[in-house]
Design a protein that fits this description.
- 27% of the residues lie in helices and 22% in strands.
Amino acid sequence: MVTVARDPLFHASGSGTGARGGAGSSPRAGGRTATVSSNVDWDGLRRRMRGVLLRPGDAGFENARKLFNPLNDDRVPAAVAQCASVADVREAVLAAAHRVPLAARSGGHSYVGYSAPPGGLTLDLRRLSTVQVRLDGTATIGAGATLGAVYTALGQANRCMPGGSCFTVGIAGVALGGGIGVLQRKFGLTCDHLVSAEVVTADGRTLTASATQEPNLFWALRGGGGGNFGVVTQFTFATDPAPALTVFVLDFGAGSVKKVLAGWQPWITAAPREMWANLKVSGGTDPGCKVAGCFVGPSSACNRLLDDLIARAAVRPAQRRVEGHDYFKAMRFFSGSPDRQSFVASSRILATHTADPGGVAALLKNRPGMALILDALGGAVADVDVQQTAFPHRKAFATAQIYASATAASEAAVTRSVGQVVAGLADLGIKDGYVNYIDPALPDWGTAYYGPNLARLRSVAYDYDPDKVFDFPQAVTRA
């Protein structure tokens, strides 16, 4: 569940409302800059808001409209509502509904820019960012809070919660897509800790979704993806006491992929749930790889497990870094740069720990600037039934993210290359995908992201948004 704004040593987990790339996709798929005529009363909305409504030409609009990925800079909304209250969200939804497209923005990491609808209204939730950790161990978090703010508050209270790595990612997208992360094998997904959510619906109601109130909506919000069902304005999560953690990176260098992947797959499958590790394959003339991860416990126990991995792989790492940290410092270890980054990405799901090492290595050969990042599932993730929440990949072995740096000039070529790897993984039997890495060109994406939960998600979407106010190219209702 982790997002990358850097050399993607770890995985990217974005806002859940889009990911770029895929076989045969156009870099302009879904439409970009658009002029949409409307009868929205922008001046009236501005007067009714406690926050700020920005239109093109207003000071601050250009900065407010831009998302994390610069390749989405040509997606220009008609307005950005910087909501300062739940009432602002309600006013914005009612003003724009049935008139222009609208979408919520939390951290702005929507991979293909779905949170900046061209010619529409972006509901910028970043002012709703309060994080309050209570004495009972629950944390009430505004939907605009970033993971950095969440981890800071939790760390100060000596509490923890599983989540993504990039500190600038918004908690909303992470949680709504399921929420994979470096503590998931011990503590589960982010969405598994959700106690309740405050939601503004298409008709302007403010609802509380929990196990006892609006239970179908509560079910859908735990893995059903951002941008669907309504606008979540606040979350309440259960947290755990913060443990001592050990973080590590093993760099095996070029030419190591076959042996390391062959050893890593059975190793992490057999490892205790306190151990989480990913494997990053770097494209190039002779692809290399790194194994990085987080262990809940002391470095001495972690090192014994790493020694076992090295023995299984029969390859000595060129570099070995193992460090003990508290919760916040461990999360910061994975955080990377906060700077905006141009990239193309997609995903697949490894159902079992039997991926062909030679086939995987071959897919990354002669693809500089591309990475394939495998993030281990299992442990507490698999303790939850496939249909108990909307997140369907409970019994899978790992997620796979295909990630490639790009520029505006190279975007089309990089998109084709990412698509070729996605198709190649499918040929190896690695199918399906993770909704927080949405790819508009992924074949049968509705089933790929939601599996047996798709029909119920469509039903929930119809119950709460029958007129498709919250619509975008990969909305649940479009699947």
